[in-house]
Amino acid sequence: MCLGVPGKVIEVRDSVAVVDFWGVRKEVRLDIVDENVVPGDYILNHVGFAIRRIPPESIAETLALYEMLLAQEGDDLMSLDVRSEIEASS
Q: Which of 17, 18, 32, 74 has its CA 20 to 30 A from that of 43?
C-alpha cells in the first residue's frame, strides 16, 4: 500500500516545487498535476510527484487525518507508510 502525503508548497520553479512536509522540505515534480500550483497551495505527493492539488476547503480535514496517522504508534501500515514517505525525503 502506498499513500500520498500532503504538503505545503513553499516555492515553484518551472515544473518543480519545494514542498514542506511537517518540517521536512523536499523537491516535488509538478508534471502530472492538472491544475496550476502556486506557493501556499497544498499538494498530495506520491514518490516525488504531486498527483493533485488539494482543494482549499479540504486542507484542514486532510491534515487532521494525517496528523492522526502520524501520532499512531505501532505497526499500523498506513502510519508506517506516511512516516516512511516523509523520512525518505530528509
A: 74
